[in-house]
Every structure is written in structure tokens, then in C-alpha cells.
Amino acid sequence: METYEAIRSRRNVRSYSGRPISEEDLDQILEAARRTPSSRNTQPWDFVLCTAPDQLEKLAGVWKGAGHVAGSAATIAIVAPRSDKDSVQYDLGQATMSIMLAAADLGIGSGHALVSDHDLAARILGLPEDRICLWLIALGYPADRPLAPIERPARRSLSDVVHRGSW
């Protein structure tokens, strides 16, 4: 898949087929995350790859909207130093999109989840005290339909969101 096709095909997937993801594909997705640009090249992230069903089940409890994590083939926990720098959140957002686009390029669906119970996530992931898990990205092959370009996405029109030169 080409980049623009991956962008047009990516959607939030929260129901997975149960088909495992190869280590090679997981490594490619993680390599895309590692290569993500960051503010001043600080690379404020670490990624914890989780594939064990019992661990995925526990991770689903870190937020009320994270139930789909339990059914994923793999989930990437995005971990950062405890920080109040706004740039860290921006950098993690970029890493999230790199993960999701790399997955879409491979035909793998993804669905993000917030982490609200940071203590539970830290225990499940065995994080050091100076780190916090902020996001989970669940991965798996879609249960309903394969990823394909979405011809008419439920999005505001280009002319509605783009202002050229001024508002």
C-alpha cells in the first residue's frame, strides 16, 4: 500500500479476527514508531509490545473505553517520562499516527485507547516509577471487513476546514 492509500484506508478498528500478527510485521510497525520525528529529537517514548492474552485482558481495564484491547492480537503501550512539557503529548501523537499508518499499510487495523488508571497500567507493564503509560494502540486484522480506501469518509469537506491565507 502507498502512504496516501494507507491514510485513506485507516479507520479505528475495535473488533479483531483473532488472526495473529507476525513478529516481522510487529517489528516493522515498531520501527515506524521509533523513526517518528520528535521535538528537538528528544524521542520521549518507549514502547511496550503486549501479545499475551491475559496481559491484554488486564490492560483493557485501564480505561472504560479500552475493552477492544482484550481482543487484539497485540497492543503497543506508549510510555513516556513523567513530564509537564506540552511537546511530549505532541510527540506521542506523532508516534501514534506512525504506528497506525504503518499498521494500515500492512492491512492491520488499529484502535487507540486512553489510559486513565496509570497505576494499574504501570503494574501490568512493570514500569519504573519515573515513567507513565499514556496511550494504548490495539492492533489486529479487522473482524468485519479488510482495510480499503474509504471513498466518502464522514469528515467535514476540504473547503470547510481549509482557509488559504486567512480565515
Q: What would the keywords be for this entry?
A:
single chain, alpha+beta, NADH Oxidase
Task: Describe the model.
- The protein is of the alpha+beta class.
- It has a single domain (3-144), classed as 3-Layer(aba) Sandwich (NADH Oxidase), CATH 3.40.109.
- 35% of the residues lie in helices and 17% in strands.
- The protein has helices at residues 3-9, 23-34, 53-59, 86-105, 118-125, 158-161; strands at 46-50, 74-81, 109-114, 131-140.
- A 4-stranded antiparallel β-sheet has the order 1-2-4-3, with helices on both faces.
- It starts with a helix and ends in a 6-residue tail after the last helix.
- The model has no long low-confidence stretch (mean pLDDT 96).
CATH architecture: 3-Layer(aba) Sandwich
Q: How do the strands of the widest beta sheet line up side by side?
A: 1-2-4-3
Q: Write down how many β-strands occur, each being a DSSP E stretch of 2 or more residues.
A: 4
Low-pLDDT sequence parts: none
Give the biggest beta sheet. Answer: 4 strands, antiparallel
- The CATH topology is given as NADH Oxidase
The sequence of SSEs as H and E is HHEHEHEHEH
In a nutshell, what does this entry contain?
The protein is an alpha+beta fold and 167 residues long.
